[in-house]
Amino acid sequence: MTVRTVPVVLVAGHLGVGKSSLVNHLLRHADGTRIGVVVNDFGALGIDAMLVAGQASSVTALSNGCLCCVTDADGLSAVLADLVAPATGLDLVVVEASGLAEPRELVRLLLASSDPHAVYGGLVAVLDACAPDLDHARLADLAVVNGLDRCGPAAVEAVRAVAPGAVVGTSHGALDPALLVDPVRRPQPAQLTLDALLREADGEHPHVAASSVSFASERPLDAGRLAAFLESGPAGVVRMKGIVRLPVGASGATGEDEERGGGVLIETPDVWEVQTVGTAIRVRPAPGRLTTRGARLVLIGTDLDEPALRAALEDCAVREDEPAPSEHAALALTRYRIDLTSA
C-alpha cells in the first residue's frame, strides 16, 4: 500500500529579504491547497491579525484550511510529525527557518527523519535582489530573488550563474504556489474567507504565473541520463512530476522481483513516480494505476525553453542500439527513493 507523503519545504534567508511575505502569499493564494506553516512566532508573519483564528501556543487553524504552528528547533520533529499525519489532510508543509536553526541543520534533520509521511521538499533560499547572498544561492534547491520591483531583474542572472537549482525572480514575495505543490481543488465556502477578504483589502501582488511543458516518450528512459538531467537544474524548471519506465534489467529485476534493503522487503519495479523541486529529487514506485511504456512528465517553471527541454529529455530515452543496462544502472535515479520505511 502506498503511504501518503507530504513534502516539507524549508524557507531560509536573511532578515528582511521577504520570507514572511512569501509565506503569506502562499497562504493567501492557497485556493483549496492545505498548507502547514511552522514559525517561531506569529508576529513574524502578517497572518496573526486576521488569518489566525485566535492565538495558540502550538497549533492554530487558519481560515483557509491551513495550519500554523509555533515551535523552536528542539520541537520541530514533534510538530512535523503532527502536521504530516494523514488525519490533518495537509498538502504541503512550509518551515520558515529564521530563528529555528541553520538551513543546513534543518535539511539534515529532514533527510534523517524516519517519519514515513514526511519527505524533504527542498530548500528555498529567499535572496534580496539588491544584494543577493550568493552563498545562500549555492545551497538552495530553489533560489527566489525577491525585490525586482526595487532593483530590477539583473540580480536574477547573477544568482543563476552560481545556483545549482532553479532561480525565480519575485516582487513582494509573490511566488506562485504551483511552483511548490499541485493546486488542490476543494469546495469553496459560500462566503469569502478571512484570507480572501484580506487579499482584497491589501490588494494583489500578482505573481509571475507558472508555465508548463509536457513530455511523452514511448521508450524507457536511461536512469543515468535522466538523473543527470534532474541534478543539473535545467533552466527555468522549478518542478517536475510524472512517471518513468526504466529499461528491464536496469535494477536487476523484472518488475516482479523483490530485494531486501535495511531489513525491509522492497519491491523493485520498472515504473517510477518522479517529483522534483529544483534539485531536490524524490522517486518512488509508481502506484499500480499509473503505468507507461516510456515516460509521461510535466515540467513546471518560468521562461521555459520548450524545444531545449524536449530535446534534453529525448536524449534520455533508451536507443535501440544501446547495450542492455547493468543490474545496478537504476541506482543513479532510485537512490532518491523515499519509500524505504514502512508505515
Name some characteristics of this structure.
about 350 residues; alpha/beta; Rossmann fold; Hypothetical Protein Yjia, Chain: A,domain 2; 2 domains; 8-stranded mixed beta sheet; 10 helices; about 20% helix; nucleotide binding; nucleotide-binding; chaperone; G3E family GTPase
At the fold tier of CATH, the topology name of the largest domain is: Rossmann fold
Q: Give the low-pLDDT segments.
A: 47-57, 252-266
| Rough outline | globular
* Spatial sequence of strands, sheet with the most strands: 3-4-2-5-1-6-7-8
CATH class descriptor name of the largest domain? Alpha Beta
Count of DSSP H/I helices = 10
Fraction of residues in β-strands? 25-35%
Largest sheet: 8 strands, mixed
Please give the CATH architecture of the largest domain: 3-Layer(aba) Sandwich
Using only C-alpha atoms, the radius of gyration works out to 20 Å
**Fourth-level CATH superfamily of the largest domain:** P-loop containing nucleotide triphosphate hydrolases
Mean pLDDT: 79
Which bin fits the share of residues in helices?
10-25%
Number of domains: 2
Protein name: G3E family GTPase
Family: Belongs to the SIMIBI class G3E GTPase family. ZNG1 subfamily.
GO molecular function, one term: nucleotide binding
Organism: Actinomycetospora corticicola
